[in-house]
From TrEMBL:
Keywords (A to Z) from UniProt: Decarboxylase, Hydrolase, Lyase, Metal-binding, Zinc
Catalytic activity, EC: 4.1.1.45
Organism of provenance: Actinomadura spongiicola
Keyword Metal-binding annotated: yes
Pathway(s): Secondary metabolite metabolism; quinolate metabolism
Descriptive protein name: 2-amino-3-carboxymuconate-6-semialdehyde decarboxylase
Stretches that traverse the bilayer: none
Limits of the Amidohydrolase-related domain: 4-328
Subunit structure: Monomer.
Gene Ontology BP term (one): secondary metabolic process
């Protein structure tokens, strides 16, 4: 049984000077302190202590072997998105990050699948960067769930998602820069409350705005952290759609009829929650995701799937790897790589 983890992060060795590509106010870089320890830096500020698995592929592969993980999809740490920077600077930054992620994965291309990042603040540039990255060997795109006050149902961003669909390039959407930060200063509440709410907002926005009607159904889109609070509150959204015309104004179908348009990962950490998630999404729409190598991730990859009640062996195999194999199966459409450019 192949085990594929679709939600893992990397922060390649990027110096303070290289971080300056984004400008003095936006300078993510990695400080390596020795003995396997390091610090993610945001300019002069220490952002988060980290370990060498975040930048050392040999350590990562050893961890994968120890945990029984065959393949990881490797995406940047959200601190690196650069969405607040001037678009041309951000495009150059993304090219650098994407080059480093390719290098990180190059020693084990059958086990480490590189995902690129893009300057999503400028969807036309994002299309160009994604096309270049796909041609260079990236297997998908990693994006944040919003850019400032623009959600994923923004016309420019849906144009970018349509571009990815035409390329056959899968998209992993990750919550970040959570709203309400002034009320969530302690206890990692932005990660515990803000991230699930951000993801639910993204999914419902795509549904209720009619964006899923405008995006090709061939798009392979996955939301991290089990889709946040979406599955638990889907009944509330359906009830609102049926009872209030202002809820359904932009959407011809209730939210529950769009669950076949996206995937979610399994990072919910409770077998009972995963059981609900599979009931809502279907066993063919949930993929193993651990958030490796961060402490809030699943430390025993696949443990929640293996403990989930009511799954048969075939369904467990789908969640542990079969669905992800299909999600990343098709290479980008080679004939389009040379011709596809900006979002239409």
């Amino acid at each position: 049984m192949t085990v594929i983890d679709v939600h893992t992060h990397v922060f390649p060795r990027i110096t303070r000077n290289e971080g300056g590509l984004l400008g003095d106010a936006n300078r993510p870089w990695l400080r390596v302190d020795g003995d396997g320890a390091g610090m993610m830096m945001n300019g002069d500020d220490e952002y988060r202590p980290v370990g060498e698995a975040l930048w050392d592929p040999a350590r990562r592969l050893a961890d994968m072997d120890a945990a029984g993980v065959d393949v990881q999809a490797v995406s940047s740490t959200p601190l690196m998105f650069g969405y607040s920077a001037e678009p041309e600077r951000a495009a150059d930054w993304c090219d650098l990050v994407n080059e480093r992620i390719l290098a990180f994965c190059s020693g084990a291309p059958d086990r480490l699948l590189p995902l690129c990042q893009v300057p999503l603040q400028d969807p036309a540039l994002a299309c160009d960067v994604a096309t270049r990255a796909a041609a260079a060997g990236h297997r998908g795109v990693h994006i944040g769930n919003h850019v400032g006050d623009r959600n994923l149902d923004d016309d420019g961003i849906t144009g970018f998602l349509a571009h990815c669909a035409r390329l056959g390039l899968p998209v992993l959407a990750h919550p970040w820069d959570m709203f309400g930060a002034d009320r969530m200063r302690d206890h990692m509440l932005p990660w515990l409350c803000g991230m699930p709410a951000e993801t639910q907002l993204s999914i419902l926005g795509l549904m209720l705005s009619g964006a899923f009607e405008r995006i090709p159904p061939s798009l392979r889109l996955c939301f991290c952290h089990g889709g946040g609070s979406f599955a638990f509150l889907l009944g509330r959204a359906d009830n609102a759609w049926h009872r209030r015309d202002i809820v359904r104004a932009g959407s011809p179908r209730p939210p529950s009829e769009y669950v076949d348009r996206f995937f979610v990962d399994s990072a919910v950490f409770d077998p009972r929650a995963l059981r609900l998630l599979v009931d809502v999404m279907g066993a063919d729409r949930v993929m193993l995701g651990t958030d490796y190598p961060f402490p809030l991730g699943e430390q025993d990859p696949g443990a929640t799937i293996r403990a989930c009640p009511g799954l048969d062996d075939a369904e467990r195999a789908l969640l542990l790897g079969g669905n992800a194999r299909a999600f990343f199966a098709a290479a980008p459409a080679e004939g389009l790589l040379a011709t596809e450019g900006s979002a239409q």
